[in-house]
TrEMBL record:
Name of the protein described by the UniProt record: 16S rRNA (Guanine(966)-N(2))-methyltransferase RsmD
UniProt keyword Cytoplasm, yes or no: no
CDD domains: AdoMet_MTases
Keyword annotations from UniProtKB, A to Z: Methyltransferase, Transferase
Pfam family, one: Cons_hypoth95
Recorded GO MF terms: methyltransferase activity; nucleic acid binding
The keyword Hydrolase is annotated on this UniProt entry: no
Entry-linked Gene3D superfamilies: Vaccinia Virus protein VP39
GO biological process: rRNA methylation
Length: 179
C-alpha cells in the first residue's frame, strides 16, 4: 500500500498483518478521495477506526491541516506511529489510543472530514454519527465518509446529515453524508 496523491504521494504505507484491521485498498482509497475532494484547502479530519492510519495520512497529504486518529488495537497503534513518522510532519497528527466511543468524550471539534470504517462485524455507524452531531463535533460543511460491507444498508438520514453520494467498490461500499 502507498499514499496515492498529494505531498506524500507514492510513499509506502505499512499495514498490520492478520485480520485485526482491514486496510482500505489503494484503489478504494483513490476512488473515495475522488468522490470527496480530491484535494482540500485546510481543515481537520477525524478517523475513529484508524487501522493503519492510511485514510488520515492521505487526507493530510491532499491538504487537510490536522488529523486526529483513534485506534484501540496496540499493534495497529504501532503501525500508525511508523506511518506518521514516514510523513516527517508528526505535528499534523494526533493518535488517541482508545475506543472510538471513549474518544468522542475527549475530542474537541469541529471536524471538516470524518472517516468511519468500523470492523464489519461491529457496525456502529448510526450511533457514532448521531453522537458526533449531538456533541457538536462536526463543522457546518462536514463530510462523513463511511466504509462498510456492500450489503450494509445505511439510512438516508442520520441526525441532521443526509446521504450525498454512495458507491460500491468490490466488497466495500462508500457512503458520504453531508448536511
Amino acid at each position: 500500500m502507498r499514499i496515492i496523491s498529494g505531498n506524500y504521494g507514492g510513499r509506502p504505507l505499512k499495514t498490520l498483518a492478520g485480520k485485526t484491521t482491514r486496510p482500505t485498498s489503494d484503489k478504494v482509497r483513490g476512488a473515495m478521495f475522488n468522490m470527496i475532494g480530491p484535494y482540500f484547502d485546510g481543515g481537520r479530519v477525524l478517523d475513529l477506526f484508524a487501522g493503519s492510519g492510511g485514510l488520515s495520512i492521505e487526507a493530510i497529504s491532499r491538504g487537510m491541516e490536522q488529523a486526529v486518529m483513534v485506534e484501540r488495537d496496540r499493534p495497529a497503534q504501532a503501525i500508525i506511529k511508523e506511518n506518521i513518522a514516514m510523513t516527517k510532519e508528526a505535528s499534523k497528527f494526533q493518535l488517541l489510543q482508545m475506543e472510538a466511543q471513549h474518544a468522542l468524550e475527549v475530542v474537541k471539534g469541529p471536524f471538516d472530514l470524518v472517516f468511519l470504517d468500523p470492523p464489519y462485524a461491529k457496525e456502529t455507524i448510526v450511533e457514532t454519527v448521531t453522537a458526533l452531531c449531538q456533541k457538536k463535533l462536526l463543522a457546518e460543511d462536514v463530510m462523513v465518509v463511511c466504509e462498510t460491507d456492500k450489503q450494509v444498508q445505511l439510512p438516508e438520514e442520520i441526525a441532521d446529515l443526509g446521504i450525498w453520494k454512495e458507491k460500491i467498490y468490490g466488497i466495500s461500499k462508500v457512503t458520504v453524508y453531508v448536511r
